[in-house]
Amino acid sequence: MATFAKLDENNIVINISKVDDKNCLDENGDESEAVGIAYLQSIHGGGNYKQTSFNTYQGSHRTGKTVSRGHYAAIGGRYDEALDQFIPPLEPEKASWTWDSAAAKYVPPVPNPDPTGLYQWKEDEGKWKLTDAETGAWIDD
User: What's the number of domains the chain is made of?
Assistant: First the structure.
């Protein structure tokens, strides 16, 4: 199965569609994004589509294949034409984070002091805070 993201006029992902591989093959029997897009447009009466890969996450392909557009498309996310990447929606609790196109992920404004998971980002304070390993509760400074 091939997967395609439907984009609105602002390149926001509004739908994800699966297409049987046979509907993505060109005249030589090779998989073609253009053929898959033409198939979707023929059954949906047009639209702007980009192929995406479920196995792509943060610039890597889970099975070692060629990376496709940095990240799997997510509804509400956007497609950046200049980067040729899908950018997932930003979580509200990480509003100050920025997109790192090389790493294909959001990064915090301040590096995590200990990425073992004991520190969690506290957006309203703009810093990492230590949490209790058992309960996950914030440990006050």
Answer: 1
